[in-house]
Every structure is written in structure tokens, then in C-alpha cells.
Amino acid sequence: MMIRTLGNKKLFRVIFWGWLVMIITVSLMPGLPTPSLDKEGLNLRLDHPFHFLVFFFLPVFFFLWRSDGLFRVEARVFYWAILAGMLFAFLDEYPQKFIPGRAFKLKDIFYNCLGIITGIIFSYFYLLKVLHKKKLTTEIPEHGKKS
Hints:
Elements: H1 2-6, H2 9-27, E1 36-39, E2 42-45, H3 47-66, H4 75-93, H5 106-139
Antiparallel strand pairs: 1-2
Helix pairs in contact: 2-3, 3-4, 3-5, 4-5
């Protein structure tokens, strides 16, 4: 059941584009407060983990959308995803330089890129390798045997 859901290309196309629009929309909102956790004198900023997580899921959704029924992705799609992801990680942050109450921060770009890279690595090793093997062993019968 999980593999069937993960193989739903239409669903992940909608999730990918919705996620992308959500990132752009939130990035362009003026004056958003910096999320933080105040606990007994310890002020922990949460914006960097948010940057990482938001950008981590972007390539995951992309590869779930663009993979075939056996969770494989063409090499050219994989390389374009890396290039486009890194470019988007920068281009998403740059307009904040001109938005009231927002700032262009290299540290945010770093966490955006780290999320993209980690999401690509996760997608490659888990989604495209582990699920591919699992799909092969669970859904394709051996030659000569009927399922």
C-alpha cells in the first residue's frame, strides 16, 4: 500500500508544485517574525531548521513525481534537479533583500542548499534505491510463475 501511494505521480506533482508555491509565498511575505524557542534563558532560533526542512522535502517530492513505476529517474533529470534546486535555494532568498522586515542572509542560503543536497541524497539512496529494490521483489513475479 505504501509503495502504491509513493508511486502516485499525479499526487506528487501536485504536492511538489504546491510546496514550491508555498515556499515562494512565505518567502515574499513582509515582516515575518523569526521563529524561536525560549526555554529557561535559552533562546533557540528555529528559522535555520525550518529552512533546512522546507528545502529537504522539495527534491523528495520532485523525485517521487518524476520517477517511473520502479522509482528510477533518468540521469539528466537527476542532474537538472541538483542544478535547479541549488539555483532556487539562492533565488528564493535574494528578493528578501527588497522586502520590508526581511533580510538577505547567506546563512539562510546555506541551510536552503543543505536541505536540497540532503533531500537529493535521501531521495537517491532511499527512494530511488531501497524502494526500487522493494518494488522489484514485491510486485514483479519471477519468470515462469504466475502471481
